[in-house]
Structure formats: C-alpha cells, structure tokens
Amino acid sequence: MKLTQSYIDKLNQLLASYEIHYQNLRSLHWNIKGEKFFELHVKYEELYTRNQFIIDELAERILTLGETPLSRFSDYLIHSVIAENDLITEAKRGVDYVLSAQKQLLIVERELLKLSETHQDEGSSALMSDLIREKEKTNWMFSSWLHQIE
What we know:
Helix content is about 80%, strand content about 0%. It has 5 helices and no strands.
C-alpha cells in the first residue's frame, strides 16, 4: 500500500484535533457550574475518557502505517481543526461546544474515510467508520438534551 504524505498529514490532523478536543473536554468537566453540574460533569468525563482511547488508537494506527504521529502540544495547536476553548462554565455553552467540535471531527473523519478507501487502507477505513457512527449517535443525544433545556 503506497500512502501519500497528504494522507498521513490528514491522519495527524485528526490526531491533533482529538488532542485539543480532549483538553477542552477536561476543562468543561472541571469547570461546569449550575443546576446541570452533576449530569454534565459525569458526561464530560465519559467523553474525555473515550477521547483518550481514540487518541491512542489514532497514534497507533499512524505507527502501524509506518509513519510518525504528532506528539507535541505545539504541533497539535497548529494542525487541529478545533481551537482551544476559553473557560466555559455554562451548561448550554458547553454542550454547544461539544456538538460543534464533533461536527468538525466528523468532517475530517469523512474525508479520511474516502481517502482510506482510495489508499486501500482497510484498517483506517474501519476506524473512521466506527468513529463516524459513534459520533453521529452522540450528536443526536446531545442535540436532544439541548432541546429539553431550551
């Protein structure tokens, strides 16, 4: 399988984006306040714990392909499609961030799904399919949660 540098760069972009998203989720978990504290504190922890696993999967996938994953926070900031958050303490704003970030991740994952098929990279294709399916369900759940508080 012959991989292009742009393909590896896209995998690293997704890795960088998950790293920034992970830290943003940690901040949401630590700083949530108000009447929705208990439910969101737990949910944010579930999300960042899952993201930690995804980060490891992505880095190991890049290594499996014989390439080097990004590993410096300064590189993550440069390559991520997700920006660092300001401090968020409000429930609605935090969930809005989660939905927005996950939509950005979905764009990159869908691009990688197409590219992985072009490169005949079945392992990355399966990973992207799993991430897309999981994220679509999570977005549906968070969107439903937002409707209850509006």
